[in-house]
Design goal:
By secondary structure, the chain is of the alpha+beta class. It contains seven helices and 15 strands. The strands form three sheets. The chain has an eight-stranded mixed sheet with strand order 4-3-5-6-7-8-9-10, sandwiched between helices. Strands 12-11-13-15-14 form a five-stranded mixed sheet, with helices on both faces.
């Protein structure tokens, strides 16, 4: 497992370095930008270049593996190993020069995530995890915050791109905000989950994220001691992902469940 984590780390670092080198030549007005699911859901030429670099590096070392990427879909392979790639998680932050974006690479074996690396490149932070071997930031082992009462919890969240979904998310937020210490909205699911692992926030929840957003960072958070899941005992998923220390997880879960967050306007 640790060999997978090292390879994911090396490739995520190379992709992050490439993005940092090319980002200063771009601006929001001049960048080559396309949209995906909505006018606010953007993808840049560098998202695609990052994913292509990552695919090439993986397949050069492990040509039989499968690779699932946000931009290019799944490349077939014959092994039981699949790599799950988000070439830039937080593309809007990337475009605007904000520091919360990441290169995320997870490794599955027989459908289970066993290793991952999340490179929050603008901050110079590499988060890694291997199943059963803990979560790490550089050479420091991560152990997230112990559970605090819900009223003392600093909670990270995010919002979708569709206007109708955002309206519901804002409604849910008005039910959460009076019950917690405060809310943080960073703009990158992967960075937010790693912040739970590092103890920078106490909890995180979001509706509408994709598997490549949370595959690697979810392992980082769980290996740091956090509980991660969906509503009503379901695994974490695109409908709702919730992450916090055991104890706080249950409190936040019950609050969210009462607000019916898995709906759109």
């Amino acid at each position: 497992m640790t060999d997978f984590a090292r390879l994911a780390e090396d490739i995520a670092r190379e992709a992050g370095d490439m993005l940092l080198a090319k980002r200063p030549t771009m601006s929001v007005a001049s960048a080559d930008v396309l949209t995906k699911s909505s006018p606010t859901d953007v993808v840049t030429v560098l998202d695609k270049a990052s994913e292509e670099l990552i695919r090439q590096r993986i397949l050069a070392v492990r040509p039989d593996d499968r690779v699932l990427g946000e931009e290019g879909g799944e490349a077939p392979g014959v092994s039981d190993v699949r790599w799950v790639v988000d070439p830039i998680d937080g593309t809007v932050n990337f475009l605007y020069g904000l520091p919360d974006w990441a290169v995320s690479i997870a490794v599955e074996v027989n459908g289970r995530v066993v290793a991952g690396a999340v490179n929050v490149a603008p901050r110079g932070e590499m988060f890694t995890a291997a199943l059963g071997d803990g979560a790490w930031l550089g050479g420091e082992r991560l152990r997230g915050n112990p559970a605090v009462p819900l009223a003392q919890a600093l909670v990270a969240t995010g919002f979708g791109y569709d206007a109708a979904r955002r309206a519901v998310q804002a409604e849910v937020l008005t039910g959460v905000l009076p019950r917690v210490r405060d809310i943080r909205r960073g703009g990158s699911c992967a960075a937010d989950l790693c912040s739970v692992a590092a103890g920078r926030v106490d909890a995180y929840y979001e509706r509408g994220i994709n598997y490549w957003d949370y595959a690697a960072a979810g392992l980082v958070a769980s290996e740091a001691g956090a509980r991660i899941g969906g509503l009503d005992g379901r695994p974490y998923n695109s409908e709702l992902t919730l992450c916090a220390a055991p104890g706080l997880f249950e409190e936040l879960h019950d609050l969210l469940a009462s607000l019916d967050p898995e709906r759109d306007a």
